[in-house]
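#lab-general

N.A. 3:47 PM
ok so I finally got the sequence cleaned up, no stray characters, all 294 residues accounted for. can someone with queue access submit it? mine expired

B.Y. 3:52 PM
send it over

N.A. 3:53 PM
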Amino acid sequence: MITGKPPLNVYKACQDKAPVIISTVDTSARIWQSHSNYFSILWVQEGAGMIETDFSVTAYTGGTIYCFNNYQAFALQPESRTKALLLLFHPNFFCIETYQHEVGCNGVLFNQVFDIFPIVIAAGEDQELLQLLSHIEAETAVDEIAKGELVFSYLKIFLVKLTRLKTAQSPVMGPVKTIPPQLEKLITLINEHFSAQHKPSFYADSLHISLKALSNSSRQYFRKSISTLIHEKLLLRAKWELLHTSNQVKQIAAVLGFKDEYYFSRFFKKHIGLSPKLFRESEWDIRRGYLSIP
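B.Y. 4:20 PM
back already:
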C-alpha cells in the first residue's frame, strides 16, 4: 500500500477543466503524490529516488517515463531534487480501447499488470516528445476552432511514440523475451483464473512449485507479489464491468469471485478511492459529456 495515500482528485473534464493537463514537477520534498481520475504520464527529467504505487516500489532516475492508469495513486520519494513533466488525460477524450488498433498503448503503457519497467529516453529521443507536449500546451491555452482535434492528434502521436519505445525496451513485450518460462506460465494462469482463484497457493500448486519459491521469483522479476498481480487484474476487470455493463455491483462482485458485495466494495474503494457505485456514477456522468473525439 502506498505510504500516506493521497486523496483522490476527481477532475470533471468539462469546459472549465481541460481534458488534457500538462504540469511541471520540481520537488525536493520527502514525498510528492498524485491521485486522479485521469491517465497519468510522468516524465522524470532530473533527479533520483523511489517511485511508489499501491502495488510496487522501485527506484527512478532522470530520463525515464512512467505511465499510470486512471484512479491509480503514485508517489515520488526523492533522494535528490527531482524535475518532471506530468501529462494527464481523461479516457473520454482519448479512449485507449477505442484506438487500440491505431495506437496500441492499451496493455503496453496502460492496463499492464506484468511489466513495471519505465520507458528510458535516450539522448536525442527527447526533442520530438518535448515538441509534441509543447504543441499540446499551446493548443489547450487558446480558444480556437477545432483545437480539440489538434490536441487529440498530438496526444495520439505522443502515445504512439511512447508505445514504440516501450515495446522495443520491454523484456516482457519486446522482440527478445527474457521472462523465465515458469513466470510465463504464471501469467497465463493468472489471466485465465484471476476471477475464480484469488489465493497465490492455487498458482503455486498448479505449477508444482513451493509458494515461497514462486513468490520470490515474482518479486524478483515483476517486483510485485503474486497477490498484487491478481489484485491488479481484478481491478482492471472491475473497472471494465462498471463502465461497460449495466450489471449491478452485486453481480460484478460474484463474477469476480468475491463472496459478497461488501468485500468487493471494500477492496475496490481501498485501491481506487471511490466505491464501485460512486465510480460508475462519476465516470458515466463525465462520459455522457461532449469530450469524446470521433
